[in-house]
Design goal:
InterPro entries: Homeodomain-like_sf (IPR009057), SANT/Myb (IPR001005), SANT_dom (IPR017884), SLIDE (IPR015195)
Number of strands: 0
Number of helices: 11
Subcellular location: Nucleus
Largest sheet: none
Keywords: Nucleus
Helix content: 55-70%
Oligomer: single chain
Protein name: SANT domain-containing protein
Pfam families: SLIDE
Strand content: under 5%
Shape: elongated
Order of helices and strands: HHHHHHHHHHH
Distance between the termini: 82 Å
Mean pLDDT: 85
Length: 234
């Protein structure tokens, strides 16, 4: 970008990669990735870049790169939210957590294995670098699996694939629960509304008993109510 003569091609590439990695708004982390530049310099450069990036010759390729990175960031946030919501439904998830398999149970992994994978992935931090290597180490050292050759012999990549499947099932379950909750709220709302209006045309609540109607009539026709108080004020 013209006007930034101290910025080399290398600085520019580091800036673009950092935008892809952290998203365009995370200037603090972007600045850490651009060597030799202060956060203030990176912020100034970023402002001009986004104002004038359409002038760049290969902007379509650059934007596609950044958009892909930001989509990954959003996906990670969505998965974290789904796992947090799932875990919050149990007091002791390592013992109580259940997977809503539907017709996708699969033949190889047991529910105990799946439960451990989900809980440990959440505990380690699923978006942590090398998390599946750590998960594999946790599986191999877990006492409940010491004779379970199948789970202990899985590679980090195989565990990642299984976790991806389990995350999809959890997201589907969360969505179904949210939809059910919304439907129940909808059902409750009209009932409460009609109750408060007395269920009569025009929304007026008519007294339910003869005595109530009588009292109402007395209140309306009592002279003190109509004129007595006004006379006292005068």
């Amino acid at each position: 970008i013209q006007g930034f003569t101290t910025w080399s091609k290398r600085d520019f590439n580091q800036f673009i990669k950092a935008n892809e990695k952290y998203g365009r708004d995370d200037i603090e982390n972007i600045a850490k990735e651009v060597e030799g530049k202060t956060p203030e310099e990176v912020m100034e450069y970023s402002t001009v870049f986004w104002e004038r990036c359409s002038e760049l010759q290969d902007i379509d390729r650059i934007m596609a790169q950044i958009d892909r990175g930001e989509a990954k960031i959003q996906r990670r946030a969505s998965i974290k939210k789904a796992l947090d919501a799932k875990m919050a439904r149990y007091r002791a998830p390592f013992h109580q957590l259940r997977i809503a398999y539907g017709t996708n149970k699969g033949k190889n992994y047991t529910e105990e294995e799946d439960r451990f994978l989900v809980c440990m992935l959440h505990k380690l931090g699923f978006d942590k670098e090398n998390v599946y290597e750590e998960l594999r180490a946790a599986v191999r050292s877990a006492p409940q699996f010491r004779f379970d050759w199948f789970i202990k012999s899985r590679t980090a990549m195989e565990l990642q694939r299984r976790c991806n499947t389990l995350i999809t099932l959890i997201e589907r379950e969360n969505q179904e629960l949210e939809e059910k909750e919304r439907a129940e709220k909808k059902k409750r709302a009209p009932r409460g509304l009609s109750g408060s209006l007395g269920g009569t045309p025009g929304g007026m609540a008519m007294g339910g008993t003869k005595s109530a109607q009588k009292r109402k009539g007395e209140n309306l026709s009592t002279p003190e109510n109509k004129s007595g108080r006004k006379k006292k004020k005068v």
